[in-house]
Specification:
alpha+beta; four-stranded antiparallel β-sheet; 14 strands; single chain
């Protein structure tokens, strides 16, 4: 399963941490993620050293996301500069890359990226918001309105009829859409589910009984 990252441990508690050159980060363009490709074709998460940023330039563009074990991971606010060996690929490209926790944490990072991107302005007065020190929060400097990531827990239910189980039936296109909804709209993490939930699809023929 995507959340099985043992022996690693994900810690989403917020910390005011300044990135080091060897710290890894996530950078997104839409729902594409920046990855490093080696000469042998292997992909991995980039570090700030790959961007060749001056030490003083990293803190202004990096947002702390979480820690995996004791390793801090950051979000690069805005697109990364073009660098050799780095390119944006679909987020599903995180599956199977190094380190082993990249896929699960990448989905969490994408949620937070959406949340930061969708809350750049105050919903009360329209002023540009600022990151609040010491918290995973955005605060309006004019009216003081504070916004935190939303949490939208989901309950999964198995519907049975005797020895039959209700299963979805869909085309490949719909399957890809459903996987996107599961991983992007229904992912549950302590950092918060950062986009509103949608109504369940109830089209006739979308479900069938599976006797296997």
């Amino acid at each position: 399963m995507i959340q099985d990252i043992s022996p690693y441990r994900l810690d989403t508690a917020y910390r005011d941490t300044v990135p080091a050159p060897d710290d890894r980060f996530f950078s997104f363009q839409g729902e594409d993620v920046l990855l490093r490709e080696g000469e042998d074709g292997c992909r991995s998460l980039p570090s700030f050293r790959d961007l060749q940023y001056p030490a003083g330039g990293m803190p202004r563009q990096a947002v702390f996301l979480f820690r995996v074990d004791k390793e801090p991971v950051f979000l690069l606010d805005g697109a990364a500069p073009g660098c050799r060996g780095l390119r944006y690929l679909p987020v599903c490209g995180l599956k199977g890359i190094l380190p082993g926790w990249a896929f699960f944490t990448g989905v969490t990072a994408l949620h937070l990226n959406h949340w930061y991107g969708n809350n750049r302005y105050c919903g009360r007065c329209g002023s540009a918001v600022e990151k609040k020190m010491g918290q995973r929060a955005l605060v309006c400097p004019d009216c003081g309105n504070t916004v935190y990531p939303c949490i939208a827990p989901v309950v999964m239910v198995a519907v049975i009829n005797g020895d039959k189980l209700l299963m979805p039936r869909m085309t490949l296109t719909r399957w890809k859409w459903m996987m996107r909804k599961i991983f992007l709209d229904r992912h549950i993490g302590a950092a918060g589910d950062c986009r509103p939930s949608s109504k369940a699809n109830t089209q006739e023929g979308a479900m069938k009984w599976d006797e296997s």
